[in-house]
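Notebook, p. 212. Picked up where the previous page left off. The plan for this session was modest: take the two constructs that came back from the sequencing core last week, fold each one, and keep the raw output in the notebook itself so nobody has to go hunting through shared drives later. Recording the first one now, exactly as returned: residue sequence, then the structure token string.
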Amino acid sequence: MYLYSVEKTLNMSKKSKSKKHYKTLLISVLSLIVLFFTIVGVRYYTFVAPNFSVENDKKAYIYITPETTIDDIIAQLESGGWIKNSTSFKNWCERKNYTVNHTGYYQITDGMSNKTLITNLIWGMQVPVRFTINNIRTKTKLASRISQQLMLDSAHVMKLLTDEEFLKTYNVDTFTVIGLFIPNTYEMYWNISAKKFFDKMAKEYHRFWNEERLSKAKNIGLTPMEVSTLASIIEEETNIKKDKPIIAGLYINRLRKGIPLQACPTAKFASGDFSLTRILKEHTLIDSPYNTYKYKGLPPGPIRMPMIESIDAVLNYQKSNYLYMCAKETLNGEHNFASTLVEHQRNSQRYHKALREAQRKKQK
């Protein structure tokens, strides 16, 4: 009886220990599960969950140059008000061993996570920019406009724009290079190299000068660059669309007859003073190949980057017998045209009379 009681007590003790061991094991397993999901949750919250917000219909971008650091990236994100938790982003950059190794232009989208942005940065998954070019007179202005929109140094671009050997590869020179750029909006990567940029502009130039336009230029007896040169003069003469084909026809008539163009915009360009509102006798005497008062024919290159509208006005010029033009007495930017010098002088008298009257009224 005594032995049975002892044995029963031992069995109960074993069962008790077994239950405690089971409970301990269960608690340990549950703790591990909780820890696992906690880690997963924290990882999700800091890495996969949305960490960036951008207002509806707005665009958000960051720029990365060779000098940009992670702190610089965070500063851009914070200044735009797009990042929710800067610390988590920086921590994950460090955990992923991200170093700024790809320059570019990167978009921030609403709901983007640290993971998405960091992956884009690591792999250089940037988006293209819309590069717009128009309304440019000089190479200096062109270099400046390029550097304002792309990761290209204006001094380096200017050096290429004046490098005869470099420009030869594109069949242009320092006089005609501005005509290589067709005013438009183009998509390209912000960190494009200077060489690839010129290659793209040359490709767009040849795409613009399709068979139809080349055929029209040939029929006129002008090269594409000569068409652009004439178009640049016309663009400086007027912004009245309907007048452009008429002025184009007038200048083509003068070219064919060997009469100097005597275009005021070319004398202004030769002077280098683009603030001039009137061309005086002294300006027409400037010794420059651009001055069509002094030299017959077209200048050696465009005096500005002509718009497509102006180029097409030359290619589709209006045929006439006009050889002269004068600002209209309405003083609205339109012109009167004439076939003879006598008729032109009458137009000129009407214009100057209207101008004097307008000046008198202004003085009262």
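Okay, moving on. Second construct, recorded in the same format:
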Amino acid sequence: MSDKQYEGSFFNYFITIYDPRQDEKVKHKLIDVLFIVVVATISNCNEWQEIEIWAREREEWLRKYLELPNGIPSQYTYERVCDVIDPKQFAKCFTEWMKDVTEMSKGTIVAIDGKTACGTGDNKKGKKPIHIVNAWCSSNKMVLGQVKTDEKSNEITAVPELLDMLFIKGCIVTVDAMNTQKKTVEKIVKEKKADYVVALKGNHETLYNEVVDYFKDAESDGFKDEKIQSYRTLEKGHGRIEERLYYYSTDIKWMDARKDWVKMMGIGMVIRKVQIDDKQTEERQFHFGSVDVVKDYADAVRIHWGIESTHWSLDVTFREDASRTRTGKAPENLALLRRLALNVVKKDKERFAKRSLKAKRFTASLSTDYLDYLMSINF
């Protein structure tokens, strides 16, 4: 055994995953198969056959980290393993690992949002695509955990389940309007010891109308009320100018609704103005939260939008929507593997900091030296 074999945090956490395969039929260690799939995914592989081809070309390098007593597994072994391991245990190991490698300081934004893996559905068989709810951390732009639902409407029950997996004390949690639920807010504050900024739309009609009317009056008065805090950001680039004006008020004693929401401290509005060439658009969004300063509110709202870039990367860089793995447990486990690989590549802030995620994956497919570097900073 080499000095590096089975050393590092990845092996410490994932070696505990239960292997349901029949012992007499097992040729390859579960941890070997998982490691190969993860590193192959990092190295620009998106299909089972690609993973096998990559592993055979990189067998000598893989043996620095793995024993591989029976050589390189076939593509069917990777597929079978991803179809039989328990997604909940896999996700728990992933979340525990992320807790170990992620810096979570007070005020860190944790954005929770869902993404549908479109390719996992099958209209002919009446199978809906899986929907994954992700928790994403602002401090290192990594995914902290995931929970699968069968459709988007089930996010309401999935978000509390995801929160149960996370260690987020002192953080600020953000969710979209659909997940602005009293039980979710209560769990964030009482159980997770965190704060929140949540979006507000018509699904809470009375509260929404009160907040809209409050800021409509304030805007007509030119926001002269000193009790309303304000903050402004301006971003320019590639012919696009985006201005965001944030307004936040903790003067909400007049609101009956604050009694219904744990630790409700203030209400907010953001006006988002985007100009591209001669065309300008403007929209308003409304929120409430347990924070008491406008800067925290502004950071939470702005960073929540950032999770969309992670979803975009999963589609464009990892071709998630193009995946046609649809049956059994494999779609959910593959979704987690992509997020794991995404985190590993994102952690490179020095070697090729200016390269895109796509370019980093391509580099990993060509260079074992770069793979060793990624192992050293992640595994």
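Notes on construct two before I forget. The chain has two domains: 9-85+348-378, 93-316.
Flagging for discussion at group meeting.
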